[in-house]
Queue: 2 jobs
Job 1
Amino acid sequence: MSTRGQPDTESTDDTTDPGSTGSTGSTGSTGSGPTVAETGEFGLIRAITRRLPVGADVLLGPGDDAAVVAAPDGRVVVTTDLLVEGRHFRRDWSSAYDTGRKAAAQNLADVAAMGARPTALVVGFAAPGELPVAWAEQLADGLRDECALVGASVAGGDVSSAAGIVLGITALGDLAGRAPIRRDGARPGDRVVLAGRIGWAEAGLALLRAAELPPEILRAHAEVVDAHRRPHPPYALGPLLAAAGAHAMCDVSDGLLADLGHVAAASAVWIDIDPTALPVPGPIRDAAAVLGADPLTWVLTGGDDHALVACLAPTALLPAGCVVIGRVLAAPTHVGPDGTRPDDRGAGHGVLVGGLDYRRGTGWDHFRQVT
Amino acid sequence: MSTRGQPDTESTDDTTDPGSTGSTGSTGSTGSGPTVAETGEFGLIRAITRRLPVGADVLLGPGDDAAVVAAPDGRVVVTTDLLVEGRHFRRDWSSAYDTGRKAAAQNLADVAAMGARPTALVVGFAAPGELPVAWAEQLADGLRDECALVGASVAGGDVSSAAGIVLGITALGDLAGRAPIRRDGARPGDRVVLAGRIGWAEAGLALLRAAELPPEILRAHAEVVDAHRRPHPPYALGPLLAAAGAHAMCDVSDGLLADLGHVAAASAVWIDIDPTALPVPGPIRDAAAVLGADPLTWVLTGGDDHALVACLAPTALLPAGCVVIGRVLAAPTHVGPDGTRPDDRGAGHGVLVGGLDYRRGTGWDHFRQVT
């Protein structure tokens, strides 16, 4: 874990404990206290790592060239994401704490989606020198608390300077002897099962993007807005669905249709979603009413909630907390109102809604016609 | 491995094979061919992954929520670095290929510095839409070729958009039953051993920074300039030094004195470097002559070559390719020309050069006095 950059300003002064301004605020402001440049690279590392307890799976934590993490299975699940300020998060929309929760969550969910138990994160952190150290500390708190939900911890990392904040998060996990649940195992006849929320983060993002909305509207829809800031992946259901015999699984990061599209393509099957089985909770309907939006579109296409979707044999017993939302087909069975079939393009795989193509924007769109 | 960003432009078109302009050029220009925005996120992923053969340790490669990598030891060594354009690399100084080599090298070296064998990388890649796909392809080639030196491979990754290029590299490794070699195990009486080059990358950077230098000077010192672009860590010597009984080890990423300073602090010892034992090769002396610089300063303080330094018992047998450059002391033994001792500050640990303090800038500086 090198900490060297070409033009980095370094200082060995350790000016820490800057007085956090609260870890769950809804703005990116962290107010007073020293900046990253004032504290220096090694002071920053100390400020962060002192907030990060090392869990049982971390055999050697921060402070060396590399960390050592338990991999009792003899294999390790690994996934990585970059989060770039202004692209993946905004400091005026999400607190440092929530950014840490979300950054951890999206990687831990990827581990769970393989049917594995997350064990550790390593975190690359680049930031401008004027960033308050308190922001980095609250980020660390968010990473720590999200990891704690699954018994994982931050094993190490790297800090450097950049014009904007960048996070590089890598999560590790253990399969406990099970096969990883891939995207390419769905079989015709399988049930499609959803665990966790979908549409919430997209609804929250839509509210935040509606710049003309007064603050009291955002406050009235806080549950939805907060869903953008902090997902709630159903981590425990990943290994449980694997143990239940899932043939395929993924997390919903790009949207239900998009991610099931990846499963369908990898498995060379059709996946038919039953729109009447999809949960569309009241808070999402209410947010949609404010914006004149279609809540089902959010549910079908909104990402960033990190739900899990899995395909299991119809005889499989399902863990509590799952909803059957569709089935896997060898081929489409319906004919659209204009006489075309979903597979007229010859893809040989795809995702259907109510047996028919779902398309946004142009073309016929069965689903939008019936909502 | 989510690929979702809030404002990302996505396309499912796959326009690839853009005609690389050569993989080892010394400029960042990659010329013609489609851009990342034209190819789209998934086309970019395909363009990159098709260049990345999956090695024997990668049990499940790119294309799922996470990869699965062998961890036969039951533990996994993990290290991560962020590389930010303009901070850690410049496209006008380093080719995409060399940037890939260097990004992989600095992480693989961290794994080797624990005494482990690198098994896999995962790579986060963020770039502006106008970046030529060829640049990303050449980066992938560089990652691939550096990994191949140690039998590792790229197991997976993540792509997204950003104003400048950002790389998040995570390396994994296997300890093969050995204890990880930490920084805190150096013991008084140990020999300090160097494997690999030091001072080269710093000399090359100094030449590149000297903006007034004509191109023919850079060409005449190509070996030194290239050392900045692409380090040559002595990977195999990491596990060999571990097997030889190294008590402590680290890679030289921040500079010999700085990194040995971390070893000395963690081990609560003094490390005394013998300046006459340090290699100062002709190309570094020649580069120093051009700039009127002190080559020994580069050797003592220059980073980014990713040599390995280790502390071993004086009776230990050393693998070929190592040089003894100093020894570990319980306390300083020399008195400086002004009558002060190195430990007058009461640190209780530190790095000495020829038995005395080495300080840049102010204060007495034995080492500069004798060179």
Note: Chain B touches chain A through 76 residues (CB under 8 Å).
Job 2
Amino acid sequence: MGKLVECVPNFSEGRRPEVIAAIVNEVKKVQGVTLLNVNSDASHNRTVVTFVGDPQAAKLAAFTACAKAAELIDMEQHQGAHPRVGATDVIPFIPVSDISMEECVQLANELGQEIGEKLNIPVYLYEAAAKTPARVKLPDVRKGEYEGLKTAITTPERQPDYGPAHMHPAAGATVVGARQFLIAYNINLSTSDVEIAKKIAASIREAKGGYKYCRAMGVMIEERNMAQVTINMVDYTGTPLHRVFETVKSEAARYGVNIIGSEIVGMVPLQALIDTADFYLRLEGFERKQVLEENLG
Amino acid sequence: MGKLVECVPNFSEGRRPEVIAAIVNEVKKVQGVTLLNVNSDASHNRTVVTFVGDPQAAKLAAFTACAKAAELIDMEQHQGAHPRVGATDVIPFIPVSDISMEECVQLANELGQEIGEKLNIPVYLYEAAAKTPARVKLPDVRKGEYEGLKTAITTPERQPDYGPAHMHPAAGATVVGARQFLIAYNINLSTSDVEIAKKIAASIREAKGGYKYCRAMGVMIEERNMAQVTINMVDYTGTPLHRVFETVKSEAARYGVNIIGSEIVGMVPLQALIDTADFYLRLEGFERKQVLEENLG
């Protein structure tokens, strides 16, 4: 199947369909890239584009879309509910198959340099690509937003990683980085007591001493009169699905509660399902290329 | 990803590399087909070719390879340890993704008719494509082999499903059909007592009252001083991996024995792994298209 990376650029335009179409078209034009989703939000005035492809094709698509956004979006005119620093606000690369996080960090650096030099837009690297701990989290990098960063960018601690040390007059700044695939995962409980779900969520989430790559909350699903542990698995290679499932099962048993089902919301990388089967069947020496469909094309 | 079928034709030539290469080349030439494996055995004087592709491409590749085999193999000269009735001995179609067994039976009928009419080779349909119960099992269809079938073919009960009611002078007859994907699956036990493995194997195999689509034996793996249940899963959609694994675990516990691991030997369709994850995570409403890699162009 070859190396595959996902890229999810966020653009500061969610209202003008012709502008959104022009940006998305830049992605579509690149061979070796498959567009998966386009999600525009008018109140946020923001569009999230999801595509996958081989690393170089993905980088090219991200660059041309960023160039088009710089041409068509004027941050001086932009208003919206969502925090942002530029026309292309943030571009994360996500490893999908046969590619390491290190390669995605490298890709983020290459793209950052290209955007800085060719488009004259200042670029900040974040998450796995961050060069200092202060720039790992997106909210820290975006502090002050477009308006505040115009002056803050000249201070030493806000100096960009690539490009000029001043904002692009229309496109602002862009944040580029690499992170793991996020799996939205819900576990449904045989109880209508949301307090139990909240206690279980606390037991698995990082903030309360649980799993490092697990964000979790207990919520009530009114339509089913059922409590649910709703989870963001922010790195399934570090904290796998089966471990969270088994821990929730064990913690729920403490309250006499069972798991009645679980839901994967949206996409999941094949590797996360292989890892699950590998664990439960106690597979010895299983290799991904044994999956028949992996040998095509 | 689109409809995908596997095809595993067996040819009665395992000694002359140039003949094998010429036959395999017919498969390689067809667009939309991916060659997965070629396995020749000199003592059997037989070659097994494995390829996958979209249904029409797979049918075309099977036909052209069969035509080439009829051109280059003379059954009057053929000797080998393996039972056979023709130059192209047997052609099974196997559903892999987005295709039903009924569609594979239809494909077998189309190919059988084409081989009968265009190559003048008598064709018998077997397994899921069989038109009578007496022709389901390959050994029944192959009874008497090439030499015996030359006269038996004229009797009403051995009349072919397609093509002439006499053997092709060089290529003999061909058996075409449709069957499920076979998964070779071994479960390793925490004991060196092969009798326990044999008892567990008896509990899961169809012949002894076990699972319908399960063939199993207990064997000793000398290098690891370990007993093993070695299994052919002949229809993982009817008898899934997890059910066999859990039953072996339960039966082994009866003897104070644990499962120390399991092995998938060779290829496995993605769906079998999805089904495993689906079972253990108790997934609700999971669809195959949620697998990220399934959405690629």
Note: Residues 4-178 of chain A form a domain with the Formiminotransferase-cyclodeaminase; Chain B, domain 1 fold (CATH 3.30.990.10).
